[in-house]
Write a structure and sequence with these properties.
With 300 residues, the protein is of the alpha/beta class. The strands form 3 sheets. Strands 1, 2, 5, 11, 12 and 13 form a 6-stranded mixed beta sheet that branches. The protein is globular and about 80 Å long. It starts with 8 loop residues before the first helix and ends with a helix.
Length: 300
């Protein structure tokens, strides 16, 4: 095409696809180009702004490595990660939420009733619940990959003073779908803001804070793997999570318990908790494999 203009460049781009292009790839790339072109026309993007954008991407690439992915962080703070999660969550099942950059592979096994708190200071929190299907039936043997921040606000992969598996564990639900463990309250923390994403946040007058939360990846044969987080109802950042991860059904409550009432058996800390403690009850509901495809086919 010799006569490419600002008005027809999107149509010209579409015409350049080869006949054997994968249809889904064509759909995605064409929509991406269409929105990029419309964006540039809408704001009348200048050369200086275009160059700044490329420099931003170059900077993000330079500081991305095994322990930090600035492109994932950018997707998070722009709301794209959460939008993809929300579009593919199944009504009636527990909502998915962002994975985040601090998950550690191959966490050590933790038996039901095991402890994550260890020697860290802070009130004991007992977290328990059931893993079940959308009809309310228990899912025996579901696995829960659990992780959180330490009380210093850092994940183990950020903190050289912590063991890499500190506050990380893999638990298998029992025959009733029950899981249970003890820990200490996670705390709010800031996403990394010393790079290009931090520059965007400051320029937009936004803060880098996330509300405290527990991460979980819940998996079982025949069910969609759930990647999610649960948030306490009293966290000061609950209504302004910088990565938009909070959902109404992911909010839990710390229930204060009096001294002397900790379960006498069934937990690693049984007989060792003298003071007040808190309990969290939170059930996790998994959707069956293929449910999203079935819903899409029914809608189409």
């Amino acid at each position: 095409m010799r006569n490419v203009t600002a008005d027809n460049i999107t149509e010209v781009f579409a015409a350049y696809f080869g006949p054997d292009t994968d249809p889904r790839l064509r759909q995605v790339l064409l929509a991406l180009a269409r929105h990029l072109h419309d964006f540039a026309r809408e704001v009348r993007l200048t050369h200086a702004e275009w160059r700044k954008g490329l420099e931003f991407l170059e900077w993000a690439g330079r500081i991305t490595g095994p322990e930090r992915n600035e492109f994932v962080l950018l997707s998070d703070v722009l709301g794209l990660s959460s939008l993809v999660d929300m579009m593919h969550s199944v009504p009636g099942a527990t909502s998915s939420s962002v994975l985040g950059p601090f998950h550690v592979s191959n966490p050590p096994p933790l038996p039901i009733g095991g402890d994550l708190k260890g020697a860290w200071e802070g009130e004991v929190v007992l977290v328990q619940g059931l893993v079940r299907d959308m009809q309310g039936n228990p899912i025996p043997g579901a696995t829960l990959d659990i992780w959180q921040t330490a009380p210093n606000g850092m994940y183990s992969s950020q903190d050289p003073e912590q063991d890499i598996h500190s506050f990380h564990a893999l638990m298998t639900a029992d025959e009733t779908g029950r899981y249970a463990f003890t820990t200490v309250r996670p705390v709010p923390y800031t996403v990394p803001d010393d790079g290009p994403v931090g520059e965007i946040l400051r320029a937009a007058g936004r803060h880098p804070w996330r509300p405290s939360h527990l991460h979980m990846i819940v998996a079982a044969p025949g069910f969609r793997t759930l990647v999610t987080e649960i948030f306490p109802e009293d966290d000061p950042y609950l209504d302004e999570d910088t990565v938009f991860g909070v959902r109404a059904d992911l909010i839990m409550r710390y229930q204060p318990q009096p001294a002397g009432s900790f379960p006498a058996e069934g937990f690693a800390l049984s007989g060792k908790v003298d003071g007040p403690w808190s309990r969290v009850d939170f059930d996790l509901v998994l959707a069956p494999e293929g449910v999203e495809e079935a819903q899409a086919a029914a809608a189409g």
